[in-house]
Amino acid sequence: MKNNILKINNLKVYSNKNSRFKLVKNISLSLEKGKTTCIVGESGSGKSLTALSVMQLLSPQLNMSGNIVFEGINLLSLTKEEIRKKRGKDIAMIFQEPMTSLNPVLTIGYQIKEAIDVHEKLNKADLSMRVEELLNIVGIPTDRINSYPDELSGGQRQRVMIAMAISCSPKLLIADEPTTALDVTVQAQILNLLHNLKIKYKMTMLFITHDFGVVNDIADDVAVMYQGEIVEQGNVSNVLKNPKHPYTKALLDCVPDSKGKKDLKPIDYSALKRVMG
Question: Can you give the pLDDT at residue 181?
Fold first, then answer.
């Protein structure tokens, strides 16, 4: 039996005003310890809502039901104080856009210190050493410790977010499209950094993306989401080589061929609706 660190069972996310309007529809997903699982799908398919449900950071206008079991504990049964102690310590998240997550009027050094200080009570000297160590790990010169977010490049800001996320050595790292706004070269650097950190800290990773190229580079397992549902999941090699669901096939048809020999096919939603019923 697989050693699962996280099991999502029958998760639903729905509006407070209309419980029949479900944004995430009865999904189930297991994450094997030490592996990277990607959730892939188009914008609006429910990927980020699933990640935010694990962190319990949903908008107050939304409710959720089901079970999210982390190391044998149902996170949905915890109090706000109990989940706060796990969030950032055992489970951490890298958000999609650093400039909406980082405080523009605080230095990056202060913000990394703050992330550590919530969970670990270090003296001032040890805390400063830990921040410098984290900056070195993610590849930011330590002389930038007093820089503000707007003084850094997009890739550097994302590295700061990664430093904050790994600052307390989490067991589960959730990355919500962390390379979307970056150019191809920087994207490759960030993916390589995340892969190496996952191995270094023996983390499990849940990676959210809309890009099957990223899935192929980083994932062990993949779950494909469409309109709030997981329509296909399995080992990444099997899913990429032999997709079973018509939506998975349609997504893969949109992926460019590096040799330029493949014609791109836009998704025919009318045909997809007919096939899926």
Answer: 74
Identify the band that residue 104 occupies on the pLDDT scale cut at 50, 70 and 90.
Answer: very high
Tell the CATH superfamily of the 4-90+170-243 domain. P-loop containing nucleotide triphosphate hydrolases (3.40.50.300)
The residue ranges of every structural domain in the chain are: 4-90+170-243, 105-168
Task: Determine the straight-line distance between the first and last CA of the chain, rounded to whole angstroms.
Answer: 34
Rg (CA), the chain: 19
Tell me what pLDDT residue 256 has. 74
Count how many Cα atoms sit within 13 Å of the Cα of residue 185 in the half-sphere of its side chain.
0
On the CB side of 180, how many CA atoms lie within 13 Å of its CA? Answer: 16
Give pLDDT tens digits for 20-32: 788 999 999 999 9
CA 24 to chain centre: 16
Rounded Cα–Cα distance for residues 178 and 138 (Å): 14
Pairing of strands 204-209, 172-176: parallel
CA 170 to chain centre: 13
